[in-house]
Design brief:
The chain is of the alpha+beta class and 72 residues long. The protein has one domain. The chain has 3 helices and 2 strands; from the N terminus they run H-E-H-H-E. The protein has a two-stranded parallel ribbon. Helix 1 packs parallel to helix 3. The chain is globular. The N and C termini lie far apart (31 Å). The model has no long low-confidence stretch (mean pLDDT 87).
Length: 72
C-alpha cells in the first residue's frame, strides 16, 4: 500500500500530463475503489488522484497479474 501511495504522490508532484502506475496489489486497488474507505493512506491517495484529475491530467492505476512460477 505504501509503495502505491508513494507512486501516486510522485504523480501528483510531477507535471506530466498522463501517468500510468502498475501495481501487483489487487487488495490496495480494491480499497481505492471502495466508497467507504477509512484507511488514511487510501484516503490521501484518493485525494491526490482527484487533484491530478482536477488539473486536467490523467492517472491510470492498473493491476499487473503476477507471473506463475513454472520452474521445477
Amino acid at each position: 500500500m505504501y509503495a502505491l501511495f508513494r507512486a501516486v504522490k510522485m504523480a501528483r508532484e510531477s507535471r506530466v500530463a498522463s501517468v500510468s502506475i502498475l501495481s501487483d496489489s489487487r487488495s490496495s486497488l480494491d480499497l481505492l475503489r471502495s466508497p467507504s474507505v477509512t484507511h488514511h493512506l487510501a484516503l490521501q491517495m484518493k485525494g491526490f488522484v482527484r487533484e491530478i484529475r482536477e488539473e486536467g491530467r490523467e492517472v491510470l492505476i492498473r493491476v499487473r497479474a503476477p507471473q506463475e512460477d513454472l520452474s521445477w
